[in-house]
Amino acid sequence: MTTTAVETPLLAVRDLRVDFAGPHGPVPAVRGVDLTLRRGETLGIVGESGSGKSVTALSVLGLLPGTARVSGSVRLDGRELVGLPGRDLAAIRGRRIAMVFQDPLSAFTPVYRIGDQIAEAVRVHQRVDKPTARRRAAELLDLVGIPAPDRALDSFPHEFSGGMRQRAMIAMAVANQPDILLADEPTTALDVTIQAQVLDVLRTAQRETGAALVLVSHDLGVIAGTADRVAVMYAGRVVETAGVDALFEAPRHPYTLGLIGALPRLDGRGGTLVPIPGTPAPMAELPAGCPFAARCPLAEERCSTAEPALSGDGEHRAACVRSAELAERRPAPSEVYPVPELPDTRAADPSDRSSRAPVLAVSGLGKTFPLLKGTVFKRRVGEVYAVDGVDLDLREGETLGLVGESGSGKSTTLFELLKLGAPETGRIELLGHDTARLTRAEAHRLRSQLQIVFQDPMASLDPRLPIGDIIAEPLRAQRAPREEIARRVPELLRQVGLDPDHAVRYPHQFSGGQRQRVSIARALAVRPKLLVLDEPVSALDVSIQAGVLNLLQSLKAELGLSYLFVSHDLSVIRHLADRVSVMYLGRTVEQGEVSAVFDRPRHPYTRALLSAVPLPDPAAERARDRILLAGDPPSPTERRTGCPFRTRCPLYAGLTEAAARARCEQERPTLDGDRAGSEHQAACHHPEDSSD
Prior knowledge:
Elements: H1 4-7, E1 11-22, E2 25-37, E3 42-46, H2 53-60, E4 68-76, E5 79-80, H3 86-92, E6 97-100, H4 104-107, H5 114-125, H6 130-143, H7 149-152, H8 162-173, E7 180-184, H9 192-209, E8 212-216, H10 220-226, E9 229-234, E10 237-243, H11 244-249, H12 254-261, E11 311-313, E12 316-318, H13 323-329, H14 333-336, E13 358-373, E14 379-395, E15 399-403, H15 410-419, E16 425-430, E17 433-434, H16 440-447, E18 450-453, H17 457-460, H18 467-477, H19 482-495, H20 512-524, E19 530-534, H21 542-559, E20 562-566, H22 570-576, E21 579-584, E22 587-593, H23 594-599, H24 604-612, H25 618-623, H26 650-653, H27 658-666, E23 672-673, E24 681-682
Parallel strand pairs: 3-8, 3-9, 6-7, 7-8, 15-20, 15-21, 18-19, 19-20
Antiparallel strand pairs: 1-2, 1-4, 4-5, 9-10, 10-12, 11-12, 13-14, 13-16, 16-17, 21-22, 22-24, 23-24
Helix pairs in contact: 5-6, 5-8, 6-8, 8-9, 18-19, 18-20, 19-20, 20-21
């Protein structure tokens, strides 16, 4: 047997450069990227926003807009793709190389049925009739785990959930058994359980077709559990490349080390988060020398004179003049980057919560919305049970994490709290006040004690106002004197780590992390006691996320705040929260002290959530047991008898006794502790004993 097939890469990218037309000349996006992809291999590409990951992937297939200028070489089995005529590229797209896009809703044509679009992808490259193509489409939907594939063929994209759309996109990508799958952030907007399903589908598709996979992601945990090799990009270049185990065990570039150190970990072994200082330089204004030098704690004078090339032994190479030193020392991120001195914000004695004043107490909260039908004359045909039994308990100085899949009722719960009115059902007590009994004046006074930080700071900040006026707005609403407003705005900007002189700037002049700091400053303006944080770091890069989380930790200790922190990222909750409440289909299914719930989960839904969270540790990730939940949550328009989780519950599926199954089907479980007086409660008829 010759070694030619092994040595010849399936895809070889050499000195790839991409420039976009700018107002003052070409702006580089990719600057000399070299990549190699072998048959059946998974290559992960990681980096912050703007590093050139997606542009690199799109340029392989020639999918960049006309304003882009591409140079260099992209060879597929030795055939050059750069400069290939459009007709020849069209024959390769979908047949030899297929793309899985980040947003499947915009990638699918909304006016055509899913089955027609997949069948079209088949017929473009294969000489088959329409019935044969439709049968192939049904087989593909079945392969990726879409229930009732024959019926699903006639659905439109908007009728699928996010996870189902992404699985349908994967089905279309593998329709012609391509040699290469390019997946551009395929799990970014998905819940952790749906993310696990999609990654499992990608692995299945890769196994069934024998395709190589290029996985673009900002999530190092996803890369650790999926990739064989990793390329780390910064400022349009690959700054480190290695096998996945070698890269995570001993990174040789300070940027890679910083990305790993900035990650909160589900296993709690990360300690204090170490953010990478500063922000990437604009691509149109890159400095001479190493573009990372301004943010690098190991930078030397020679780093500013020439940009280092990728060098190293074997497959582990890094573009750093001190890569050999890092390879020998193998330092932890905290040994290279300055570790912020943060106070311990965990409650001193979690078992003695009765001594701390209650901030928020919610019991039996319920909220329904009318289900309407008709265009001109609407009629009520049912109800949507958005929240159907939520219990929350938050004490002074605590952080309560609220977690659950999309559609579990987290946001509706927040809106009911912020309304400061009588709930539809149940009871809400805020700082000792029953919200159902508040007068308008009392609600106005109490509102300053409860503030919210939204998920998207750009959408929540008025683009027409300078940030000084944005921060002052809550103070004006509370009729604060002008002198106090003038004093508080600079004070608040300093408090969140921003320059008071920047109060005259507008939101678009700040980075995403800085805008979120502005949102936090605005929320703190009226000195609240409870801060509601609705996915405050989900839209941020990992290095920026670390800085915001450290800021929240400092502010909590400095100002004596309590946090209600809503997130789909359980690693963030593990890092920041004292207690956690898990929601499913509008109900609280488990709650307790965070280490008890995460280390000894009692509800099968919590166990599935935790098992789906990837760890940025390849060896640990491969050794973990996965619990893949079947399908999506049931529709909230139907109030089911018994346990609402049983349709997806692996514990229920394994029950053999008729009486035990009947109890799950007929009796609705309530929150119960594993022992008398326990704070760790689960709404399950067959919970695991957390005292084991």
